[in-house]
Amino acid sequence: MRLYFIDEGIKLFNDSDFFAAHDFFEDIWTEAESEDKLFFQGLVQISVGSYHLICGNYSGSESQLRKGEEKLERYLPAFLNVNVEDLLRNIRKIISALKAREKPDENKAVDLLDFQIKFIN
């Protein structure tokens, strides 16, 4: 497995800079080894889904989050020291809210994204 420096992308995501996190993870994804590509594509998709959510594009958000969830499930419970299990638990809460057609107002959308991508100890 190749060594990836993902701390900056995680920081961007955790700082709610979802667009920049998307760009960061996309750069890694294009260069990643084949067995790692889906992990980074999943991070790209949850970053895009989170960006859509704060912009009020709820159907786009749900679609991207589902695609990211599907890819990240392959890397449970953790991958590259990222706590994938915790990340997916938070993503699934957002998907459930969107599926229930709870159209969040701007403040609620931000509340749904009130979590951080965590590293395992």
The CATH top-level class label = Mainly Alpha
Biggest beta-sheet profile? 2 strands, antiparallel
How far apart the termini lie comes to 20 Å
Share of helical residues: 55-70%
> CATH topology, anyone?
Hyaluronidase domain-like
Give the SSE string: HHHHEEHH
Q: Assign the CATH superfamily.
A: TTHA0068-like
Q: What fraction of the residues are assigned to beta strands by DSSP?
A: under 5%
Provide the domain count. 1
Question: Taking all residues together, what is the mean pLDDT?
Answer: 90
**Shape verdict:** globular
Give the number of helices: 6
Structural class: mainly alpha
Using only CA atoms, what is the Rg?
A: 13 Å
Residue ranges: pLDDT <50 for 5 or more in a row? none
CATH architecture label name: Orthogonal Bundle
Lateral arrangement of strands in the main beta sheet: 1-2
Question: What is the total tally of β strands?
Answer: 2
List keywords for this structure.
mainly alpha; single chain; two-stranded antiparallel sheet; 121 residues; 2 strands; Hyaluronidase domain-like
